[in-house]
Write a structure and sequence with these properties.
By secondary structure, the protein is α/β, with parallel strands linked by helices. The protein folds into two domains: about 270 residues, Mur-like, catalytic domain (UDP-N-acetylmuramoyl-L-alanine:D-glutamate ligase), CATH 3.40.1190; about 120 residues, Mur ligase, C-terminal domain (Protein-Tyrosine Phosphatase, Chain A, Alpha-Beta Complex). The chain is about 40% helix and about 15% strand. Helix 1 crosses helix 4, helix 3 crosses helix 9 and helix 4 crosses helix 5.
Length: about 400
């Protein structure tokens, strides 16, 4: 019997290897669970559904923040978490409480059969949101789209932030195959599809699907000049476009215009600069200068490099780089940074502990960088797997208090 938040989270994590994980092309497990719960997915408000190789977390966060600030009680589902497990499930920027996480996990556990960890987390979120009297909901896809556990819903607006070669063992080994999986979030009931800057090979697949379903579609290649991370300018513009299309779809025209007119460009930029989003070009320390960014695939590393060159091109970048072995990235991917020195660390599992050899290796390497950094000329960049960056973030928050 699950009695508290800790036991709830431990039970959820214990499901990592269940659910016949090799079967990625089915929603049978998820639908079975939802059926036992009385189909809460059918009781949700209109939804913005966000997928993409990179940028989907930022676009989801920006979208939720704008909707909340516009007066809509808005749910947000994201993955993975960076600081605290509860941040996966939020309403108006407030994490699901320990009490609610415990009670909703208890209800899911009572109906559990063979679902995976992520399927269970998604089910908890859907059940919680369905009973929270929301006005709006933003859901971030876990992996892909077509067979993702979040894709049991019918989105009002579907967003594809980017398409790159990632999760190829699940989604396919070409951009066209990956694009086909991502555009799977578009349904006949979807009002509009928006996508960001994507290769033509992927764009052709996405647009063909939208045409076949008679769904309005369009590419957003604009920028909103937010201050944190050059690539976030594209994510901010895509989020703003998604919110406008979404509100136009769900509101009377006069109400829609009234809300949009309240957001001048200056007001929007000022507001988005206040939106907190950890591990996305996050400046965790000013002196010494330390940036955290979860660039966990070649496309992510490329946009990180671009932002570092644009914003910190005059500094030497000391890059602590930890990633999963299956990812097609290496220290060589930072070659476009002429002043960078990359320190790859051995890190292969997101459930590392302080007792593991891998932990000790990055722990020692980071301590050395902190002790020798020239604060005027150098900066530290921590990047790679979001799970890795999350662990370093926790360590740094404690360590930096000890630095003069």
């Amino acid at each position: 019997m699950i009695k508290n938040e800790t036991e709830a989270i431990n039970w959820i994590h214990s499901l990592t290897n269940t659910g016949e994980r090799i079967k990625h092309d089915t929603q049978e497990r998820m639908l079975t669970l939802l059926n036992k719960l009385g189909h809460p997915e059918k009781k949700l408000p209109p939804i913005i559904h966000v997928t993409g190789t990179n940028g989907k977390g930022s676009v989801s966060r920006f979208s939720q923040a704008i909707l909340t600030a516009s007066g809509f009680k808005t749910g947000l589902f994201i993955s993975p978490f960076i600081i605290k497990f509860n941040e996966r499930i939020e309403i108006d920027g407030h994490y699901i409480s320990a009490e609610d996480l415990t009670s909703y996990t208890q209800r899911i556990a009572a109906k559990y059969t063979n679902q995976t960890e992520f399927e269970v987390i998604t089910a908890i979120a859907i059940l919680y949101f369905s009973e929270s009297d929301l006005d709006a909901l933003v859901l971030e896809v876990g992996i892909g789209g077509l067979w993702d556990s979040t894709n049991v819903i019918d989105a009002t607006v579907a967003v594809i932030t980017s398409v790159g070669l990632d999760h190829m063992d699940i989604l396919g080994d070409t951009l066209a195959k990956i694009a086909f999986q991502k555009v799977g979030i578009v349904k006949p009931t979807t009002k509009a599809l928006l996508y960001g800057r994507i290769p033509s090979e992927a764009k052709n697949v996405i647009e063909a699907r939208a045409v076949a379903l008679k769904v309005t579609f369009g590419q957003i290649d604009a920028k909103i000049k937010v201050s944190r991370g050059y690539y976030q300018r594209y994510n901010a513009a895509l989020a703003w476009a998604a919110v406008k299309v979404y509100l136009h779809a769900v509101l009377p025209n006069d109400v829609f215009l009234k809300i949009i007119d309240q957001w001048s460009t200056d007001k929007l930029i000022k507001f988005l600069n206040t939106v907190s989003w950890p591990a996305r070009m996050e400046k965790i320390s000013e002196d010494p200068l330390i940036i955290l960014d979860g660039a966990h695939n070649p496309q992510g590393v490329a946009v990180l490099n671009d932002s570092l060159l644009r914003e910190y091109g005059d500094k030497e970048q000391l890059i602590l780089f930890g990633h999963l072995e299956k990812k097609q990235i290496s220290a060589a991917d930072f070659h476009s940074l002429p002043l960078a020195t990359v320190f790859p660390v051995n890190w292969q599992a997101y459930k590392q502990t302080a007792q593991s050899n891998q932990y000790e290796e990055w722990h020692a390497q980071l301590d050395e960088l902190l002790s020798k950094i020239d604060r005027k000329k150098q900066m530290i960049v921590v990047t790679g797997s979001l799970y890795f960056v999350s662990q370093v973030r926790t360590y740094l928050n404690k360590k930096l208090t000890q630095i003069d």
